Amino acid sequence: MFISYEWLKELTDTRLMPAELRDRLTMVGLAIDAVDEHGGDAVLDVEVPSNRPDCLSHVGIAREVSVIEKGRLRLPASEKPKTEGRSADLTSVEIKDPDLCPRYAGRLVRGVKIGPSPDWLAKRLEAIGQRPINNVADITNYVLHEVGQPLHAFDFEKLGGRRIIVRRAAPGEKLKTLDGVERTLTNDMLVIADAEKAVALAGIMGGEESEISAQTKDVLIESAYFDPNSVRQTARKLGMDTEASRRFERGADREGVLRAQQRCVELICELAGGVATEDAIDVYPKPLGERVIDLRPERIPGLTSLTVESDEIIRILTGLGFERVGSEGRMSFKVPSWRVDVEQEEDLVEEVARHTGYDKIGSELPPSSMSGEYQPTEMRQRSLRRALNAFGFDEAINFSFTQQDSRFDLIPTLAGHETDQPQLENPIIEDAAWMRSTLLPGLLSSVRHNLNHGIRDVRLFEIGRIFLISKAGELPDESLALGIVATGGALEENKAQAERELDFFDLKGALEAAVDWMSVAPLTFTPTSARHLRSGQSALITNDDRKPLGTIGRLAETVAASYKFRQPVYVMELDLNALLSGPAKVIQYSPLPKYPSVVRDISLLVDRSVSLDEIFAAVNKQQIADCRSVKLVGTFEGGNIPASKRSVTLRLEYRSDERTLRDEEVEEYHSRLTSALLETFAAEQR
Amino acid sequence: MCWSGRPKWGCHRHPITLLRERLEDIFVSLGYAIEDGREIETDFYNFTALNIPENHPACGKADTFYTTDGFALRSQTSTVQIHAMQRRGVPVRMIAPGRVFRRDTPDPTHNPMFFQVEGLCVDRGITMAHLKGTVGELLRRMFGPDTVTRFRPSYFPFTEPSAEFDFSCFKCKGSGCRICKNSGWIELGGCGMVHPNVLRVVGADPQEYSGFAFGFGIDRMCGLMYELDDIRLLFENDVRFLEKFE
Fold it and tell me: How many domains does chain B divide into?
């Protein structure tokens, strides 16, 4: 909203310079974006909050300034016009849809001479960015910017039947608006019509046919109050935003309708000649009731901590147009009709507080009465992030909306309703009209973004919500997931360059270590198959409660191809809520060994299908108490080893808590174990 | 001896996480509980309970994302405040950091998804001075001990009185620079005293209890602190960008 400083000065006698006004208005809640010079005037660009339509006018701003300066507001005055005849004898106004138009006033000025506006008027409009058109149109525009009431002037001769009907448009009814666009209307839009057709789009824009022209002699001045929602919806549907619609949408002053019309008529008679009718036809079936609000003075310090004297409270509120009513002991105020935002006591408190000054409000912490608390899983989440960071993964965040995607198997806790990604009705990004039900596509797109920028070593993880509809019409399920992707070289500590390519075990190891950092009991990995994972290189992840959490593996060729990946990519996704709330790792002290241990290695040639877990289980099955640990030294395939076999070397540790073990004892244990393993797996010893 | 040491590598938290964790630490130390809630919400929690009338422009499909089932992607984390007050009752002190969604086309200063922190403190005898004290404390801990906080009157449907808060520019200390657009002040968020209608929704008596609420964007704070020239970088996950933090 542009405000002319010179205009403001006429209304308030302000002694503040434009730069001072900028600060002072900002501090009462009317932020000034800029002050610009325009032909000797200063123009303030005021950012008016959406609940203050009364400030979309010079009088509205002047009223605030008068309270700031403890000055006076001087409402605009003009000469009483010459009048003749009654409007009702010349025309009629009928409101067919009073729900959308609670008030409509029409008044005539006959015998006007249309021409350019006088210089002062044209200049004033130009200063605030309005283009002068002709004297009558300019005066309606001037009064709009002066008092905030949108007005419209019709060429009376052009009105069919010389009368006004306010009604909903007929479906498909056409109206060519002042901007030259022919609009097709719908039944929920309100129009001003004459006896035959629509002549204006109520509260938004006039029609071209009844526009004021050089030949116009008699004008009908409309001043009305239209329903804010109706104006907003119509304007939005038609893609229109006008000075009038902006004010009606936020709420115009229902009681100011006649005052604004009177001012407009006076100016027309003064500047364009003509004789006004004696009165307006004012159709106002249900006048607005009086609104009175009690203000308990103690409520002001109670909410704001400000102490304000009664006299000052009264000065601020009456200065803003509130009228003190009722008995002496109480503070009751009648709300001015233009303050559509004021409904209750707290609103009055705000009025007093902002004019007393928010800068006068003290600053202290509230008395302490509660202890703080994190989300129950926050510390585990933080450990997870730190761990993954330490093992070389950067944290990614992707948009929650993505495309519809069926290339991925969902994490096991969500399996069963795969096609039910929630869809957006009004997406803003093309190809992102669905809520994600897996984190992997977003992470893989991030990998591609990095590869496209010449970075081939990419390790990312993301923690975020995934969404699924489990029952149509109900709120979708939301679960927290962890996704990890890795590709490129396996960077190692202290090395700037990778010596080998990342593989499945790098990803698995990072996850296992992260789980350990989180103090969560270890996970188990078993072979599985998943649509997006390469067969033979995919595993199901289960927690210590045997609950399946997710999958890990190498990205399947078909999916990799769709991202144009030319190097192996490893991915993991699991249900993070389940992981975070899973059983804790047990930490239990056991005495340090007192006696030395004996270590023996063994190499076995086993079938490739035998897993390490099976071998460890077979060792444990022997229940040799003095066998304290079994570890993998390494595996070997190829060379002179048959293709179906692999060599596995294990290291076994033997120790007693009672005494130093003798060689014969160790030998006995070890050969028992060896033969058990050879037998169980039909293995050969190497 | 003057050669560089052997580089130790380690990767990085996302800058949003970095700030979120700092903010959570500050508020936990001030006695607040951290809360989170759904990202897809009913109109009731996203608008109605927050005293936002059904016909308010913010509820329109131009500003808020809706699913085809008619649910809203939350446009502010105030939704969490309602759930938390319903569950915990009053008095309550909590903050809700989280993802929110608004229908903005991505450009250097907008994303259709961003992160926000909303705070709430309801108790007997809470005033705007407590609000100012709390916001001031937060800003001093984030931007340095000399930081000055300024409240400007504003309008939000869920608070009354309402204010926007600015703080003295941490870069130029108020003398004017690019970050504060030469004004000496940086706008960060909105706040105010919880609207009586919001207290009533959760069954708290506005005559007995009062409270304050505040909110701001973590992305905006991130943009200011690290002088980002394009906030779209936050969600592109370019490794070169992510490795600039910490």
Answer: 1
- What's A332's domain CATH number? 3.30.56.10
Same domain assignment for residues A261 and A157 = yes
* CB contact A587 to B (< 8 Å): no
A472 and A532 housed in the same domain: yes
Residue B23 identity: L
Contacts of B67 in chain A (CB under 8 A): 422-425, 435, 476
Q: Indicate whether A363 belongs to any domain.
A: no
SS3 label, residue A25: helix
Is residue A464 scored above 80 in pLDDT?
A: yes
Query: Does residue A81 form part of some domain?
Result: no
Cβ A159 vs Cβ A199: under 8 Å: yes
Q: Detail the DSSP E strand segments found in A190-248.
A: 190-193, 198-201, 205-206, 219-225
Q: Find the domain containing B117 and state its range.
A: 15-146+206-242
In this predicted model, what pLDDT tens digit does every residue of B220-243 receive, in sequence order? 999 999 999 999 999 999 999 998
Among the candidates A262, A283, A304, a domain finishes at: A283
Strands B185-194 and B210-217: antiparallel
Q: Which amino acid is at A186?
A: T
- At residue A325, φ and ψ (nearest 5 deg) are -130, 165
What are the pLDDT digits (tens) for B2-30?
776 665 667 789 999 999 999 999 999 99
In angstroms, the CA B216 to CA B119 distance is 9
**The pairing of beta strand A41-47 with beta strand A2-4:** antiparallel
Q: Is residue A521 part of a domain?
A: yes
For chain A, the residue count is: 686
pLDDT for A495 beyond 70: no
Among candidate residues A358, A393, A408, the one where a domain is terminated: A358
Instruction: State the Cα–Cα distance between residues A12 and A344, nearest whole angstrom.
Output: 29
Chain B positions touching A232 (Cβ under 8 A) are: 55, 57
Domain check: are A554 and A650 in the same one?
Answer: no
Task: Provide mean pLDDT across the span A428-446.
Answer: 94
Query: How confident is the prediction for chain A on average, in pLDDT?
Result: 93
Residue of chain B minimizing CA distance to A33: B183
CATH at residue B77 = 3.30.930.10
Same domain (yes/no): A132, A271: yes
How many Å is the maximal CA-CA distance in chain A? 132
Lowest mean pLDDT among A134-138, A360-364, A426-430, A581-585: A581-585
Q: Which A residues, 445 through 464, put their C-beta within 8 Å of a C-beta on chain B?
A: 446, 449-450, 453, 455, 458-460, 464
Verify that A455 and A397 share a domain, yes or no.
Answer: yes
State how far the alpha carbon of A92 is from the alpha carbons of A200, A314, A657, in Å: 16, 44, 111
CATH number at residue A534: 3.30.930.10
Percentage with pLDDT > 70 across chain A: 98
Same domain, A351 and A392: no
Render pLDDT for B173-189 as a digit per residue (tens, 0 to 9).
Answer: 888 888 888 889 999 99
Residue type, B26: I
Q: Which of A291-295, A492-496, A499-503, B175-179 has the highest mean pLDDT?
A: A291-295
Q: Residue B168 falls within a domain, yes or no? A: no
Q: Between A544 and A439, where is the model more confident?
A: A439
Entry pTM: 0.90
B133 lies in some domain:
yes
Give residue-wise pLDDT tens across range A185-195: 999 999 999 99
Query: Is A255 in the same domain as A302?
Result: no
Domain that holds residue A41: 2-68
Contacts of B31 in chain A (CB under 8 A): 368-372
Do A493 and A411 reside in the same domain of the chain? yes
pLDDT of amino acid A494: 54
Tens digits of residue pLDDT in B109-120: 999 999 999 999
C-alpha to C-alpha distance for A532 and A538, rounded to whole angstroms: 9
Q: What is the mean pLDDT of residues A236-256?
A: 95
B35 to chain A nearest CA, in Å? 6
Distance from CA of A461 to the nearest CA of B (A): 10
